[in-house]
Design goal:
340 residues, alpha+beta, Rossmann fold, OB fold (Dihydrolipoamide Acetyltransferase, E2P), five-stranded antiparallel sheet, 8 helices, 18 strands
């Protein structure tokens, strides 16, 4: 970790997002108390917990492999943390019943975990974490072992449960879809650093670096030099010889002469067979296309061999063909210059 500083608000769902090896799980394990930081402090509810072992921090961990006890029933798995806290039997029964109702597993108390599906095992792990009423719930890529459809379902399930219980959550994933779908805020990490922290929509629409623009979603990145800047617009000479006008929707600190990378999302480029002239309008050749179900992806070559990706919704009106000459248009407000 490299001087990482993160705060999590009460009741917030905060996600640490980044590629493998960027420090997401290390951060989570430091907060949980499994790893001791070389320097710096960890506070939970304004209390310094550096010297406290994991069992005294009132945090709950949901692991990637769930870490359920195979020799115990569902009830015994969920009750385990409460028994360690020496709660009375009737209090344990009340809490376990409530937790299983919350994750829709009432009636499964007597089953062993090996008798459950992957999604049901995930719910048991959630119930076991929630039943102790933690100050902070830590989730380390808990959906990575599930198939695609179940993963999508569990995203909404976990988010719904978190909001109903108002538990504070730190979630680790390398899946940007999970991060954008589930989070109140996202911390984009790389090489032990927090590159950007913000709401999912802000990070997607206004990435602060090339890495964030390329890692969150997909971007066409144009390298170039700022030729002129007005109060609300920049003119950028792209390395391929093209010019792009970019609407400056937020303060950027960009000045004439600066080297920039211009980020343009594939779904925000307009594609047409009718040729026209105008700002940010170029001719190109459709080289290839990919059908992904709800979306059509077009690979277009611009003048000077610059290649870009364009996405259109599949509305069932047929597709274009490779080799077709096309016209593309990019609204200036969809061009985001990032200072290098």
């Amino acid at each position: 970790m490299d001087d990482l500083s993160i705060s999590v608000e009460s009741g917030e769902f905060l996600t640490l997002l980044g590629p493998s090896g960027c420090g997401k799980t290390t951060t989570l394990r430091i907060v949980a108390g499994f790893v001791r930081p070389d320097r710096g402090n960890v506070y939970i509810r304004d209390q310094l917990v550096n010297e406290k072992p994991p069992n005294e921090r009132n945090t709950a961990m949901v692991f990637q492999n769930y870490a359920l006890f195979p020799h115990m029933s569902v009830y015994e798995n969920v009750a385990y943390g409460l028994k360690l806290r020496k709660l009375k039997k009737n209090e344990i029964e009340k809490r376990v019943k409530g937790a299983l109702e919350l994750v829709r597993l009432s009636g499964f108390e007597g089953r062993f975990t090996r008798q459950l599906s992957g999604g049901q095992q995930q719910r048991v792990a959630l119930a076991r974490a929630l039943v102790i009423e933690p100050d902070l719930m830590l989730l380390d890529e808990p959906l990575s072992n599930l198939d695609f459809k179940l993963r999508q379902q569990m995203r909404l399930e976990i988010k719904s449960i978190q909001k109903r219980t108002n538990v504070t959550a730190m979630y680790v994933t390398h899946d940007q879809g999970e991060a954008l779908t589930m989070s109140d805020r996202v911390v984009v990490m790389n090489q032990g650093k927090a590159l950007q922290i913000g709401a999912p929509m802000d990070i997607y629409d206004f990435p602060n670096s090339e890495f964030v623009a390329d890692f969150i979603g997909e971007s066409n990145l144009f390298m170039g030099k700022v030729v002129a800047v007005s109060s609300s617009r920049a003119l950028i000479q792209i390395d391929t010889g093209l010019e792009l006008h970019a609407e400056l929707l937020r303060p950027t600190g960009i000045e004439a002469g600066d080297r920039v990378s211009v980020s343009v999302r594939p779904e925000r480029i307009q594609l047409s067979s009718q040729f026209s002239e105008g700002t940010n309008t170029f001719r190109g050749e459709l080289e290839n296309l990919a059908f992904t179900g709800s979306v059509l992806r077009y690979y277009v070559k611009l003048p000077n061999n610059r290649r870009i990706v364009i996405e259109e919704k599949n509305i069932g009106v047929g597709t274009r063909s490779p080799g077709e000459r096309v016209c593309i248009h990019i609204d200036p407000e969809n061009c985001l210059p990032i200072k290098l």
